[in-house]
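Internal tracking record. Fields below are filled automatically when a chain is submitted to the structure queue. Please do not edit lines marked as system-generated. If the sequence contains nonstandard residues, flag them in the REMARKS field before resubmitting.
Queue: standard
Priority: normal
Entity type: single polypeptide chain
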Amino acid sequence: MTDESNLSKSLAEMAPISGRKTLCDEVAERLRELILLAKLAPGAPIRERDLAEAMGISRTPLREALRILEAEELVVYSPTRRPFVADPDLETLEQNLSVLGAIEALAGEQACRNATDEEIAEIERICQEMVEGSETDEPLTFFRRDMAFHEAIVTASRNRPLAQTQRQYNARLWRARFISSQRKPDRPRTLRQHEEVVLALKARDAVATAAALRQHLETAVENIAKTRSEQAEEGRKT
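SYSTEM-GENERATED OUTPUT FOLLOWS
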């Protein structure tokens, strides 16, 4: 099966465009999903005409969506303005994740002071859902719960500029964080770290919450490095 037919099949399996968002936002969301699942592989060219045809849209909203993803650093352009899926090196990912770790640690500290009991209960509920679904959830379902867990903490910080900055960094790290969340051998440690964050939040312990979140993001760096090493080893074998 060709790459184009694989892509068309993946698009056909997605839910229809709902119209609840603008068309370019809907298209951007679909492209993020294709990139997350490596249906659009890192470093691969994005053929606008073929992709627009497969999605049943004109090239105008597709190009607008690609500009959104360019701002998120999920898409890059060549000097001749041809779009490609971004393929950042490990050093770049580590640098971005270290910044994100500092941002989320600060959000955790502030959430300890500002979160309501109901918000902390919701964070705990998401954590429990992740534990219960860790063996059965579809990859995207598990990942979205993971991101919802982090987003709920940032929202509970009551710091709008911090939340905006976290969203910007998180957007460019979606693929990397997805890879980390899909490493099943390392998932028990990830879930334990989430539980440690919840316990620290419930105790309103700002220092422990920040430390747990920072450690959690450092684990993501380790997971990504392992995956890249394994992929390189597989490449040498083939």
